[in-house]
Write a structure and sequence with these properties.
There is one protein chain. This protein is mostly helical. The protein has one domain. It contains five helices and no strands. α1 packs parallel to α3. The protein starts with a helix and ends with a helix. The N terminus is likely disordered.
């Protein structure tokens, strides 16, 4: 049986990565909810939201990597904050693509007889497939990098 010291860093890396991913998913969900709420009411507020996210991209990435050195607290909360700091970099490209889609496109497809599965397969997947795949790949790389920084900070 391998000693505990050899297994512990891999387990910590997985746990920290899961907590960072949880923080990233929660923050991205909040950003999308705010974007959907603002897009239906005031498009100018969406421009403000995207501008704020763009301003926070580089500081958020830097803070996510250096956060374990700055905060000497609970490991799980520290990793969730790292995920929250990654959200602007993950959401800004996706919001830009969503803004380029005409607002009545889904309603038009529904009016032409497309059900939800058909709209997903023929409309949303081609429009959002590549940007979402790029954001997922970038986010996975940053989660691994931040988890390594968090394990080094333990």
């Amino acid at each position: 049986m391998p000693p505990d010291l050899a297994v512990r860093p891999a387990g910590l890396l997985g746990l920290d990565g899961a907590c960072i991913a949880l923080g990233l998913v929660v923050a991205c969900g909040l950003v999308l909810a705010v974007h959907v709420g603002l897009y239906r009411a005031w498009p100018a507020w969406c421009v403000l939201l995207r501008g704020m996210l763009l301003c926070l991209v580089l500081p958020g990435l830097g803070l996510a990597v250096w956060w374990p050195d700055l905060a000497h607290g609970n490991g799980m909360a520290r990793c969730i904050v790292q995920g929250l700091c990654l959200a602007p970099a993950a959401m800004w490209p996706l919001l830009r693509v969503l803004d380029r889609i005409p607002p009545g496109l889904s309603r038009t497809a529904c009016g032409l007889g497309a059900d939800a599965k058909m709209r997903f397969r023929l409309l949303w997947l081609p429009l959002l497939g590549l940007p979402v795949a790029g954001v997922v790949a970038f986010s996975f790389g940053m989660i691994v990098l931040c988890a390594m920084a968090a394990v080094a900070g333990h």
